[in-house]
Amino acid sequence: MNAKKFVEFDSQGKPWGIVSAEQLWGNVYALKYNRPDKKLSENQWRSLIQEAKRAAIAFGAETIGTRIRLEYEPELFKKLFGEIGLSKIAGRIEYQCDVAKLPSENGTPFKWKTAQELTWTAQDLASFTKKVVTDALGVDPNEKPADFIQDWLHHTEFTHGLDCAGIGFINDKPCALVVAQINKETGWSRLSHMGLVPEFRGKGLGKWVHRHGFEMMKAQGGQLYHGGTHTENRPMRKLFESHGCHVFCEMEEWSMKIERGMK
Fold this sequence. Notes:
The protein is α+β, with helices and mostly antiparallel strands. It is built from seven helices and eleven strands. The chain has helices at 42-59, 74-83, 122-133, 145-148, 150-154, 206-219, 234-242, and strands spanning 3-9, 15-25, 28-33, 63-69, 87-98, 111-114, 165-170, 173-182, 188-196, 224-230, 246-257. The chain is globular. The model has no long low-confidence stretch (mean pLDDT 93).
């Protein structure tokens, strides 16, 4: 995955402000910034953000996004990301919980197999993921599953591969997907995706998909679960809270499409 960092150093030569351009999948890139203890000026942040945007474009970005944390100088970052062409697309709320405290999946109506156990190929997983994301809240219909599943299959910092993707069956029909990945060094854990094919939604099955993801994280040695959803996704927020997760932060998701040749 392509990535490049731009750093503002303090007077002792230590990294201070950092903005990175990071490939998420395909031609989708994120601009990420840190939260330093020392305060950078507006122009220092502006320079770092502009350099990161130029790097993303040089890598071939067609979509550039960022997440603005609302507890850390949000108006400054809204201004600076707005200046380079990004605009708000949604609110986001993030949750955390110790993996050991997450509930079990006892009583689940699903039978689960990993994509590896099913001997699926990456193409098989992409085809099923396409069904799961159909009309799902917060999913860009223009994104291709064949692109973004590469993050699940080849991530350099997290567990990855077909055995990280769980496929849930009811009456022998595949109808649910959950992807669990952890950072082996820190125990930081995430569910990179979870969902149901459209005809199985609205039946109270989401909690069991969520809980199987918990079991997958536990099996991989996960320690701290970090997850999030769009602010408007009330059912998912209720699910986080019912499973003992607490609010970690609120954000805004900002994004832009790149027309080739744009500077």
